[in-house]
Amino acid sequence: MGGLSGLIVLIILVLIGGYLWARGSLPELNGDIQLAGLKGDVEVIRDDHAVPHIYAESVNDAAFAMGFVHAQDRLWQMEFQRRVGAGRLSELFGEDTLKIDRFLRTLGIYRSAERNFANLAPDVQAVYEAYAAGVNAFLTTRGGPLPPEFLLLGHEPEPWRPADSIAWMKMMAWDLGGNALDEALRARMAQNLSAEQIGELWPDYPEDGPTVFASSAAHDLSLQSEAALDLPLQSEAAPDLPLQSEAALDLPWAALAAIFPPRPPEGLGSNNWVLAGEHTASGNTLLANDPHLGLQIPSLWYLAHLSAPGLDVAGATLPGLPMPVLGRTANFAWGFTNTNPDVQDLFIERLHPDDPNRYLVPSGSAPFETREEIIRIKDGSDETLTVRETRHGPVVSDIIGGSGEFLRAGHVIAFAWTALRDDDLSAQAAARIGLAEDWGGFTVALRDFHAPQQNIVFADIHGNIGYFAPGRVPIRRSGNGWMPATGWTGEQDWVGLIPTGALPRLFNPRSGRIITANNKVVGPHYPYFISRDWSPPHRAKRIETLLSDVASHSAESFAAIQADTTSRAAQSLLPMLLEITPPGSDAAHAALNRLTAWDHIMAAEDAEPLIYMAWLRELMRTLFADELGATFNDYWSIRESAISGALKPGSLWCDDSATAALEDCAWAASKALEHALQYLAEHYGDNMDGWAWGEAHYAYSDHEVLGRVPGLGPLFEVRLANGGARNTVNAAGFTIRDQEMPFAQNHGPAYRAIYDLDPLGQSLFIQNTGQSGNPLSSHYRDFAEIWRDGKYVPLLMNRAQIESASIGTLRLSPQ
């Protein structure tokens, strides 16, 4: 017995010792460290929410310290992200990630990042070099063990390089500017559906939907560059034909789609709005921003404040980048939403009939450019990937196993994307935004913001508000990127870019307000094609309504808007469904009664949102699965606009094509409701009173590595019952084709901020998990419930307030 007791004590001591040793991976918050590479002294004061406030003697030293601090708190995240961009995941994870590596190596993301860095201005290169030096200073001076992920994988990080930062910027551009998958999907559909049917699956933006310029009462939009008038213009009209080439009908688009990385979570979007002082209680300008991206732990965002001569900026940084991407300075604030531009095209290239090493061009033929990529695979042999490129871009179809079907058809598929240009200076803009002093300097910095195109709103301490949509958007000789284009004729080639001076811009509109929510930016008189992929107008209209309902706004009223979960989409679609749906079973009758009385608020504690969303999930399947066949799963998401169109009189979508009978929409709606209620009863019990949206719809932030270790996932993730849906202002996206958790929120406003432009005003911000990426830290998930509850932490920029809230001061000095 004594031996057993001794063994238990020994095990306990080992566990305690291991825990204490692992805690050595937590950052030092106090003390003095001498570091090679610094030019002057730096103080890093962390406030009581673990937000670092960096005080440096130069901008480069501030960037150095930001790199050091990012590495202290988010080293594994940075390592993972740079390996994504470099296409080097398989070195850690083996063949499981080989598909992703092949695709990103083919695109040449990291190669492009290296070339972009070489083209930056010397002062900007110095900022990225200083940041990399700061990361590497941490790697060489850390005293404790690496974070748990490195220990689990047995991996030591390599030194950081400036191209690592830029490659991650490009991956953000991929997430925010990718529609090539939809081109391939529509091409697959075109093999069985008409152009009209495909158009109904992606309905046009409604004619009465708000545009950014109309919402701002801006009727004076004009081209600001005479050069623009010499370029061909493209309208937004849907093409008359589903494909640009008859040859495309016989190509294996399903195989091509399979090589792309997974689709981003459903619900991509963001909100921002700004009010002039005439609409605020304080008389100061107010700006709100909540970008919607995938939820993860640690959060995509890291809050920080950097101060140096000529620099005083605070907000949301991306670990891996030296400066805040979103935030405020002492003089102004800014916020982003995605413009949803069409900046990617798939080009069908025809091979030379006598020489497979050449492809056809308008003047004859040309050789492929080739390069080799070596992919190292953990527990496997290295793989040599030969990448071919055409004048349009890299050949992505070569990644398909054997690529035989495309080659037998005498074609390959090249990928064109504005972010792959060697002269992309987006990293330059990102480094200079916070150094601007006013609207003029701000817009000058943003001229270099090439990808991804964003709707950027602005407010300053002098009462000015503005909007700019910088980014490179191609001008096509014909067509508009709706379908894969013919590559050998030149008819759909990119012949230029929308000139910077012709990009949408506003300054102090008469309305005193600007609203963007991924809705359409410009009206029919704008002469260039930007996109057809606008988000439905529901969020923009709801924000308009809430802003109009209050005469004088404050940070508190802005917070209420950001937390709003009323569904305008449900207000529009549900009455149509209730009108046509017969009561059916007792359960259906009870559900319809509940929905009839429902207030359309997607509240976590209510049953009605769960019934409604489960109904729409099944209705998408009932309406479209028979006609779409194998393409349905890739199309399957909550698409209220498509459902609304399919339920109109005379629509054939309601008919089940597998039967001889002609079913109507009442049949389809009733069938979907019965199936939805059966699903809910099986998962949540027979008692509707016990159902709650938040039980199925929980904000789910998982860990890329630790969350996938069997039995350990729940220790490192965050699951919080939450309200909202894809089209509410408090946007909450989910993936309904996920059979295990179709309503779990995996997408949303991972960062929220409200900026009060009083120089001494109290701005607010929050992100979805916590500042630390280390599961042993008390700041690993301490923001999660604050974020879920629609609350914030103060964005401090006043030194006295920062020092009074300090939990530690780290002093860095030159070695």
Arithmetic mean of pLDDT = 93
CATH class of the domain at 569-747: Mainly Alpha
Q: What overall geometry do the principal axes of the alpha carbons give?
A: globular
Annotated CATH architecture of the domain at 569-747: Orthogonal Bundle
- What is the number of E strands? 30
Strand count, sense and closure of the main sheet?
11 strands, mixed
Helicity level: 25-40%
Structure annotation, total helices: 27
Structural notes for this entry:
- The chain is of the alpha+beta class and 815 residues long.
- It has a domain at 569-747: Penicillin amidase (Acylase) alpha subunit, N-terminal domain, CATH 1.10.1400.10.
- Helices cover 34% and strands 20% of the residues.
- The strands form six sheets. The protein has an eleven-stranded mixed sheet. Strands 4, 5, 22, 25, 26, 27, 28 and 29 form an eight-stranded antiparallel sheet that branches. Strands 10, 11, 12, 15 and 19 form a five-stranded mixed sheet that branches.
- Strand 8 (326-329) and strand 9 form a beta hairpin.
- Helix 20 (608-628) crosses helix 23 (665-684).
- The protein is globular, with a radius of gyration of 27 Å.
- The chain starts with a helix and ends with a strand.
